[in-house]
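Private note to self, pasted from the team thread so I don't lose it. C-alpha cells:
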C-alpha cells in the first residue's frame, strides 16, 4: 500500500511538467512555432473571455439562488441513501452536488469542509480529490456552448455528468484506500 501511495505522489508531482514538456517537444518536432502559437491562443482566449461574461453572470446568479433557496439541502437529503452505499460521508454530498454546477461554489463548500473537519481528514482529502477529478459540467455547457451559439447540447450533459459520477466514485474509493 505504501508503494502505491508513493507512486501516486510521484505521478502527481510530475504530471503537469511532463504534459507541458510533451506539448512543447511535439510542437518542436512538427516545426510549430510553439511560443507564437501560444500567444495567439492567449489572444483568442481573451476575446472568448469577453464573450462569455453574460453567460457567466447568469450561471452565477442561478447557482446563488439554488443555494440560498435551500434546494441544495433538500437534494442532499434525497441523495444520501444512495451515497451511503459507496461509503461516501454525508458531509461530502453538498460538494458532490455543487461541483457540476459551479467551481467557485464547490470551492466554497470544500473550504467549509476543510475548516470543519481539517485538511488532513478523510473528508478533506476526499473533497479535494473530488474537486480535482470532476468538472463543472453545467457551467461549461452554459458558458462555452452559449458563447459559440450551440443550442442543442445533444449528449454533452449526459456524458459530462457520467464522467463526474465516475470521478466522484473514484475519489471516494481511492481516498478510503489511501487515507
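Design output:
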Amino acid at each position: 500500500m505504501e508503494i502505491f501511495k508513493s507512486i501516486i505522489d510521484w505521478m502527481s508531482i510530475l504530471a503537469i511538467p511532463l504534459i507541458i514538456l510533451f506539448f512543447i517537444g511535439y510542437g518542436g518536432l512538427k516545426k510549430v512555432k510553439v511560443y507564437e502559437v501560444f500567444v495567439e491562443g492567449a489572444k483568442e482566449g481573451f476575446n472568448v473571455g469577453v464573450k462569455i461574461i453574460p453567460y457567466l453572470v447568469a450561471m452565477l446568479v442561478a447557482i446563488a439562488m439554488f443555494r440560498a433557496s435551500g434546494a441544495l439541502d433538500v437534494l442532499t437529503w434525497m441523495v444520501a441513501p444512495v451515497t451511503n452505499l459507496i461509503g461516501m460521508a454525508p458531509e461530502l454530498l453538498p460538494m458532490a452536488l455543487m461541483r457540476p454546477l459551479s467551481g467557485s461554489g464547490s470551492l466554497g463548500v470544500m473550504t467549509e469542509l476543510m475548516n470543519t473537519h481539517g485538511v488532513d481528514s478523510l473528508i478533506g482529502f476526499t473533497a479535494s480529490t473530488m474537486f480535482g477529478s470532476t468538472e463543472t459540467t453545467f457551467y461549461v455547457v452554459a458558458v462555452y456552448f452559449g458563447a459559440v451559439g450551440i443550442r442543442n447540447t445533444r449528449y454533452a450533459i449526459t456524458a459530462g455528468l457520467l464522467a463526474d459520477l465516475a470521478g466522484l466514485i473514484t475519489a471516494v474509493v481511492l481516498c478510503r484506500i489511501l487515507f
